[in-house]
């Protein structure tokens, strides 16, 4: 699966809040799926864990070491090395960066919404096994963007 052949997200979009904090209010991902996604995120080569650069201190953030590639400035959150963070279990969504065309494509398919004041996309938390695979493909596209590469 690649971003080009992602399916439409079934059902209505979850309710959200924001802009600060920006997050998901319903259709919350089951905690085991949130944890699986987090374990995948933190296992990417060149990724290190550090506090998020946004005012959501409970979020868990991944950053990319400079030697693993340098994407454009908007591949990172607030001029840092952070390219994605996962919100706490009561929310379960993920903010991440994507190239503009990819962000529009993911939004058009219903998998997330752009942040109203930052360069990120709010990726809705996965509700089941199929959705975790879609979320993972979107996260891999964010990772590739941060690395300065096309989606691998």
Automatic annotation (TrEMBL):
Q: Which domain of life is it from?
A: Bacteria
In residue numbers, the region (Disordered) covers 1-26
| Domain Luciferase per the UniProt entry, residue ranges | 81-142
Question: What name does this protein carry?
Answer: Luciferase domain-containing protein
Q: Which organism does this record belong to? A: Streptomyces monashensis
Query: Taxonomic lineage of this organism?
Result: Bacteria, Bacillati, Actinomycetota, Actinomycetes, Kitasatosporales
